[in-house]
Write a structure and sequence with these properties.
Length: 415
């Protein structure tokens, strides 16, 4: 029959009286009696948090081991449960039960520096703290989103550095004053610069500043042959009807055309195309049959709808609208065409009436194109000699760059 023993509970023990249980993380020690154990305790016994801290050091012939009951390397089980060790007295067959604490011994290689725990950065933002939590406890989806956001942030920072470097290079090459001047010129033109015809400001002749082929290609000009011949054969009654319909520029050009020759044929074709531009500028919604009554060629109709209208979708259908920006574009192209028709001079007063825009808006378009404005002074003239007082625009090299600040009108003060 096996021998029996009784348990004897010891009196309440302090932390220094607790038994020590060590566990080696790299295996089982064979010769435990040859190990040298040393216990270190914190010297600050007045601090309730530090007085229970212990460090266990073990020396052997080959390695040294260190374990502690605090910090990141300590075992959490010491805080979650209590350990007890029973010591059997074989003479009295009584087992004394003592409180114990467990140390996890890790080998320490001489000459290798141990990493100290990093102190928490107090300057971390809320976003950084959330990112740290996602790295530690986030789901796979959250971690992928965090990685993608950081990659995008790195790409944005790289792009910002490249743009800053390029900007510094341009400033160093051109100079700050020259760049400020270019910005002022761009702001002076405003949105109109996006709707002007292609301009060659360094051209040696006025005809080459706004090339005719950029307004009408040779194929499009050839397609206007039949429509131009009908325009040249209009009677005086038909011209009066066209004048009443709001095509003053076209009628004026037709009345001053040569009677015969190639110049008459060219002028009649351009007059028909100008009449289509003016008619389109007065529209809001453009039908797909636009220009068919006047005999407009298909290629010209397609050009007008594609270049001077905006496509929108309404009730599942595509509609072509003439917006305010497209109306400004029509004004610029009409003025450029009128310059080629009238020896690089155009009548702004008649043109703004035909387009249905204000005179100030027409003047802004002419200034954006760099044209020279001419306003004939009103004076006494002979009754037999009628005098034209309309505002004219002429293309003279070099082009004029207008100052936007000096041309701004002052508002009247309200009394």
């Amino acid at each position: 029959m096996a021998a029996s023993c009784s348990l004897v509970c010891c009196e309440e023990e302090s932390d220094s009286d607790k038994a020590v249980i060590v566990r080696f993380s790299n295996g089982i020690v064979k010769n435990a009696d040859k190990l040298d154990f040393t216990m270190y305790k914190n010297a600050d016994e007045s601090n309730p948090r530090k007085k229970s801290r212990r460090i266990m050091a073990v020396e052997s012939d080959r390695l040294s081991y260190v374990g502690n009951n605090f910090g990141s390397c300590s075992l959490k089980c010491n805080n979650l449960c209590r350990y007890y060790v029973g010591v059997l007295n074989r003479q009295t067959m009584q087992m004394e039960v003592h409180a114990a604490q467990l140390f996890n011994m890790q080998p320490v290689i001489r000459g290798e520096e141990t990493e100290e725990p990093k102190a928490q950065d107090t300057n971390q933002t809320y976003r950084d703290k959330v990112d740290s939590l996602i790295e530690a406890f986030g789901t796979n989806k959250q971690k992928r989103a965090l990685s993608s956001r950081r990659l995008n942030q790195v790409g944005s920072d790289t792009l910002h550095q490249a743009v800053t470097k390029a900007a510094n290079t341009v400033i160093h090459q051109k100079g700050l004053e020259a760049l400020q001047q270019e910005v002022a010129e761009t702001e002076a033109q405003g949105d109109l610069a996006l709707h002007l015809p292609p301009c060659n400001a360094t051209a040696d002749r006025p005809e080459n500043v706004y090339l005719f082929d950029d307004l009408l290609s040779p194929v499009e000009f050839g397609a206007l042959e039949q429509a131009g011949s009908k325009m040249a054969a209009l009677t005086s009654e038909e011209l009066q009807k066209m004048r009443d319909g709001g095509s003053l520029c076209v009628v004026k050009h037709l009345e001053n055309m040569p009677t015969v020759g190639e110049a008459r044929d060219r002028g009649s074709r351009l007059a028909f195309y100008l009449s289509m531009l003016l008619k389109l500028a007065r529209q809001k919604k453009v039908h797909h049959k636009f220009g068919q009554e006047e005999g407009c060629p298909r290629i010209i109709q397609t050009k007008l709808l594609k270049t001077f209208t905006v496509e929108t979708f309404n009730n599942g259908r595509v509609q072509n609208l003439v917006s305010s920006s497209m109306r400004a574009k029509l004004a610029a192209y009409s003025l450029a065409l009128l310059l080629h028709m009238s020896h690089m001079t155009g009548d702004l007063t008649l043109l703004h009436r035909d387009l249905g825009i204000t005179e100030s808006r027409m003047t802004e378009v002419a200034k954006s194109m760099g044209l020279t404005l001419i306003k004939l002074a009103r004076g006494k003239a002979d009754k037999a000699e009628p005098r034209d007082t309309n505002r004219q625009a002429s293309l003279v090299l070099p082009l004029i760059k207008y100052d936007p600040f000096t041309e701004r009108r002052k508002r009247k003060k309200m009394l």
